[in-house]
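User: quick one, sequence for these tokens?
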């Protein structure tokens, strides 16, 4: 009989643990979002693709041709256009980025820069000499740098000047 009493007591204790102590909290969480409905706008209307036929008679530019004008060397005259007829100097065959100033020499009141070309030859240049592939003319020579005025052609075919500096290598 004691064994039956112990089983009855254990079932009574277990039934006490299953009591709905937080039922009101569970009901609140379950019903809290019932009235909330998200409003999503309908997607925008997708218009069908309409192909456009290309008509050159309207005056539209040809999309398969470059838009910058074709300019032949020496045909367009500009304010800063270089002289194409003058004799080219030895350092004009190299890009300016490949030339290195390696020294300075002052001789008979004239400053000379010593420039090394990519073929490892040394050249003595002064104000007025040309170097680089953009018609670069030396405008000043100091102990630490050579200032060069270059003439470059833009996409419209006009010539503009730009200043570059060749600095002494340490």
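Assistant:
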């Amino acid at each position: 009989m004691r064994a039956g009493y112990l089983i009855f007591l254990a079932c009574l204790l277990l039934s006490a643990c299953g009591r709905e102590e937080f039922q009101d909290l569970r009901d609140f969480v379950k019903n809290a979002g019932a009235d909330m409905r998200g409003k999503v706008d309908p997607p925008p209307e997708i218009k069908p693709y309409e192909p456009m036929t290309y008509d050159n008679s309207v005056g539209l530019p040809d999309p398969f041709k470059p838009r910058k004008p074709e300019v032949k060397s020496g045909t367009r005259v500009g304010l800063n256009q270089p002289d194409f007829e003058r004799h080219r100097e030895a350092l004009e065959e190299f890009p300016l980025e490949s030339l290195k100033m390696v020294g300075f020499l002052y001789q008979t009141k004239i400053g000379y820069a010593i420039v090394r070309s990519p073929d490892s030859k040394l050249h003595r240049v002064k104000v007025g000499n040309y170097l680089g592939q953009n018609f670069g003319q030396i405008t000043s020579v100091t102990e630490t740098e050579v200032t060069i005025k270059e003439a470059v052609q833009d996409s419209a075919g006009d010539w503009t000047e730009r200043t570059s500096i060749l600095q002494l290598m340490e």
